[in-house]
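We modelled the chain as a single entity of 166 amino acids. Its sequence is:
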Amino acid sequence: MGLKSCKECGKEISSKADKCPHCGAPVKKKGIGCVGAFLLIIFVLWVIGSLSSNKQTSSSYNYVAPSVQTPAPKIKMEIVDGWKWEDEGDWTYIRGSVKNVGDLPIGYFEVRAEYKNANGEVVDTGYTNSGERVNPGAAKKFEIMHRDSGEFKKVSIMVDGIRGLR
């Protein structure tokens, strides 16, 4: 037990006394008070919340939901077998069809030709294009007309620049 001075009369009194035995003045006990108690409770709750949110639980971190894989729609055209390469005077013609083998309508495509010499080197190119709608499963005819240089011995064709409808 310790001694302290009374705030009213200044005489020494016990630190455990509720009032001064000399003047009767109430003695204020040092404590945290209501505001201090409230702040202490908030702090304790914050600490508990922080600790519990750092725990890893199998339901919140390790669960992987099953996913359903849906294949992405494809945009694809192919040259139909049976195309022909023919000379007509000073001109060469490639005629055939392309088919939409994808899942979406096509709004634009190009058919490109590479004209090659006897050594298989590309000596010229040509193309045709179409901006007409071609639905999945549908085919469209094409024709590439090109002036014949006389050195064309082989030709290869491909579909390029395919764009779906917007």
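As a brief sanity check on the tokenised model: The longest strand covers residues 106-116. The mean pLDDT is 85.
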